[in-house]
Amino acid sequence: MNELITIQSTEHYQQLVEDCKSILIEKIFRAKMEVIEAKWEVGQRISTDNKFEEYSTESGDFIKQLAKDLKVSRSDLYDSVKFYKMFPDGVSTAIDSLGKNLSWTKLRVKYLGKRATKEPEVRYTIEEVENAYHTYIADSAKTFEEFKIILESVERPKLRR
Prior knowledge:
The protein is an all-alpha fold. It has helices spanning 2-8, 11-47, 52-55, 61-70, 74-86, 91-98, 104-111, 126-140, 144-153. The longest helix has 37 residues, at 11-47. The protein is flat and about 75 Å long. The protein starts with a helix and ends in an 8-residue tail after the last helix.
C-alpha cells in the first residue's frame, strides 16, 4: 500500500494521469462532435432532397417510414431537420453559437425544445415515507380510537432498506 502511495506522488505518475485524462477528454469530445455532425448531415440530406416536400404529408408517413428504415426515431429525424434549418451554414456555426460543451441530447433538450426523456428520480427517506403514511392515516381518522383501528387494519407500505 505504501508503495502505491509513493508511486502516486511521483511526477511521472501525475503526468501519466494528466495525459490519460487529456486523451479521454479529446476523444469523447470528438465522438460527441461526430454524432452532432452526423445528425446535421442527415438533416441537410432530408431538407435538401427535392422529393422531401412532395412526399411529406401532415400524417408524417414519409418520415415514419424513413425512420423505420434507418432504425432511428421519427423525432430524431425531425430534430435533425430542425437542427440543419437552425444552422444551415454548418455544425461549426452551431458550436460557435452554442459552445463546445455540447452533445446531441443536450442540443435537443436545451435548443430544439425537447423534454429530457428520463424523469428525475425522486427519493424519500424512510422517515419521510412513514411520516406521510401516519399523517394520511391520522387525517382520515376522527378519533384516536379510530386512528388506532385504521392503523392496524391498513397495510403498511413496504419499504426497502
